[in-house]
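User: My collaborator sent over this chain with a note saying "see what the structure looks like." That's all I know about it. Can you take a look?
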Amino acid sequence: MNLSARLLNAGITDQLTAYDRRQTKVFNSCNLAGMLIALLRLAYLSFGSPNHYPGSVLFVNALPLLICGSMLICMFLQFFRTAIVISFLCFPSAIVVMAWLTGDRELEIYLFLYLFFIFFFLHHRWHIILTFCWVTSCIIAVHFSLRPFLPSHSFRPDRTLEIIDYSFGLVFVFLALYFIKYEVWKFEKSIRQKKEELKKLNAVKDKVFSVISHDLRSPIGSMILLLREISESSMTVDEFNEHLPDLLANMEQTSDLLDNLLAWARSQIRESALVANEISLHGLTDQTIRFLERMADAKNIRLINEVPMGCSAYADEGSIKIVLRNLVMNAIKFTGSGGIVRVKSDVTGPYVKVMVEDNGIGIPLNKQQLLFGESYYTSPGTNKEAGSGLGLLICQDLVHKNGGSLLFTSEPGNGTVFSFSLPHQN
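Assistant: Without extra context I'll predict from the sequence alone. Here is the result:
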């Protein structure tokens, strides 16, 4: 972290709330701007002014530098409240003395800025009231004072100093209000983002309950009925074996649904971290085909792995397993008896494209735009298989997080090709 960043972030820790961090950054920004302006003003009084001010006057005009330095030290020591007290107590009184000794009533512009600071940095009612009265009294002291502490000899009016005070004062007012506005704008933006995230999480919650109450409840209810029938009857081993495929199918359906539900919820809540490594796409396709072979056999569908042996990608293995499983399951779901599902690949430049191709019923043209929408579109398969509508949304999200994209082409009655791209190498 460079020096300017360290100065702007002095006193900012992980323990502070987002609002406190922004407030601290505004305080540091104003403090550094005030220190720079005080230094330039003191340099003019020392070397550029036609009046030859004595050392006592120059020392008083150096007080803002000392005050700013003290506040900066307090911020590095994480004494934020102490820095606030020094700012509101010492700075206005120093400005009053500076105005009296140099005859610069234009310095009151800095005090007017403190009236804005009161309502940004202070939060307790009595602190605001008392500080407001203190700053107002300092403004009156500067504006209406006869300057009783001027040296015995008089100074010539210094128009350049007046211009410097006004111009620096306006610059300081602008910078201070800009810092406040900028940080408030960022805070409002973060609140809007949090609001959107809460809306999304609320949608996640609603979808989770919907899936649990409908899609998950049905296979579990079927298993309960089947197990109850088995337990309440004197069933032979052969009769039990007849029911076993249905029981296993229900268990697999429930397991797949839970996997998709958990993967989707984690993806939406952003809790799952993806770890990219070199993965074998041929090997993952083989695993997927073996896992879904029984489902394909039940519909007399052939699963063919046409991904070359050496084909690889740089991605998170667990998430790509989910993508492949969902795409091949979808292909099986919408392919009729005797159909074929192929998994192929093609390397183009820095990306490798994986294609899951079937010769099934395809997707109606008027439904294609719904696949990646927010409504979790689903339709029954060729054997009336049900779905939750989560699978393709999960695939799209996981592929995107792995640095790729998911596309499809479909011709009603002639099948569908889903393809996703992944980085070919790191």
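A starting point for your reply to your collaborator: Residues 222 and 250 are 8 Å apart (CA to CA).
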